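Loading example: each entry is read as four labelled lines plus one structure line.
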Amino acid sequence: MTQKAREYYKDNPQFYVAVDCIIFAFENDELQVLLQQRNFEPFRGEKTLLGGFLQAGESLEEAVQRVLRIHTGLTNIYMEQVGTFSALDRDPGARVISTAYYALINKNLYDSTLLKEYNGEWVSTNHLPSIHFDHTKMIEQAREQLRRKISFSPVGFNLLPPSFTLAQLQRLYEVILGQEIDKRNFRKRVSEMQFIEKTGMIDKVSSRRGASLFHFNMEKYNMTHEFKLK
Amino acid sequence: MTQKAREYYKDNPQFYVAVDCIIFAFENDELQVLLQQRNFEPFRGEKTLLGGFLQAGESLEEAVQRVLRIHTGLTNIYMEQVGTFSALDRDPGARVISTAYYALINKNLYDSTLLKEYNGEWVSTNHLPSIHFDHTKMIEQAREQLRRKISFSPVGFNLLPPSFTLAQLQRLYEVILGQEIDKRNFRKRVSEMQFIEKTGMIDKVSSRRGASLFHFNMEKYNMTHEFKLK
DNA sequence: AATAAAAAGTGTAAAAGATACACTCATTAT
DNA sequence: ATAATGAGTGTATCTTTTACACTTTTTATT
């Protein structure tokens, strides 16, 4: 590289770059998000999203997957970039540019023993506690992005167990969209999508009669890519 | 701050942070984007988006407005964040994290004398030339984001002069959505939105008969926030 | 054994929204 | 006077969305 080219970069400042993860899960008819009550400095005692600093050899997506692995034990988690936040005073400790990603996990599969280690807690997105930094804004933006996405893309299945009842699926949609859905209309729309398949198994836990368990067939979905549900 | 808190930041690497601007304009029935053919190192001769490095005292949005002002002479330009790109090798000269923003300008109002200074050129988004870095991906993502947005939010008016004919507005939508629109249906939808107002002026340039000029009344729009056009 | 309780499962009609479609009008150039 | 150009306008059909109520299956209770 020429001297000029080196200066092109060198004349500019560098910044800490972080990722913050809005980890969503669905339980008790609530969309929940994983927070941590920090038991370390700085900002000990404050509630924040789970996050971490970008390291030299990794992309933002790799940093997110690292943070997710550490805190949930899971790999290959579905995630989506929400946005990058750069207000001068967003982190009072130092100038940090942070990119938020939301992630969708199935709470049954993740390693809940990790919770204690980092002082994590699940909270409902319906009544968020007071949260540090600009993390409340990140959560709201992520929730809105998920709401817009879920009607046209089969991302919601990441929040459910591999097999689920139609009642569970409907409740998930009702909670994320924030409105009641007519049962017959909902099921009509589901039945038009052949990639939402009856497994033949019956769930006897949630009802006396028993409800058919379904699962999302990703391969079949990939053939059509036609999804619409609300 | 405690020693611990200082280490919290100091143990982490820092990065160059940049912004890249997808500056869109509408002319000759094309959605165009402003590129520069670099006449400086590094990557002299390559085509890139207009961008710049984040400076210490500014947010990403301020950096974008700075870049936009320098290259178009305009301030207060409509813009929206597209996403942040962080692949390890995206800039072969150094590790740079870059956030892309698209901006919408009216080509009649901007300072075109600046073009020569930085070797800028407008290209149609329909047949993009070969562009350096990951900038092609940024442009495609921005174009898609604009396409999704324009039907439900009155952002397209930023690409038109303050007053415009309905034919102009329709062509804008046809080009961005990538499909022909029925004239009567389009006008029916426009006439339902009272904030798209007839100015009383007649444009005699584009037709013999003359066409009514309309303008977008932002104040009226803010009262309803109901927009739908496709 | 009969009954009550709980959630699963199922079809049709009306309303709303989206789409298809063709001619007249006003002006200017020839 | 006439031809050419783009502006302007309404209705009928199709598609999609919404509203709506009862029967079925099983278990717990008496």
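The CA atoms of residues 42 and 93 of chain B lie 8 Å apart.
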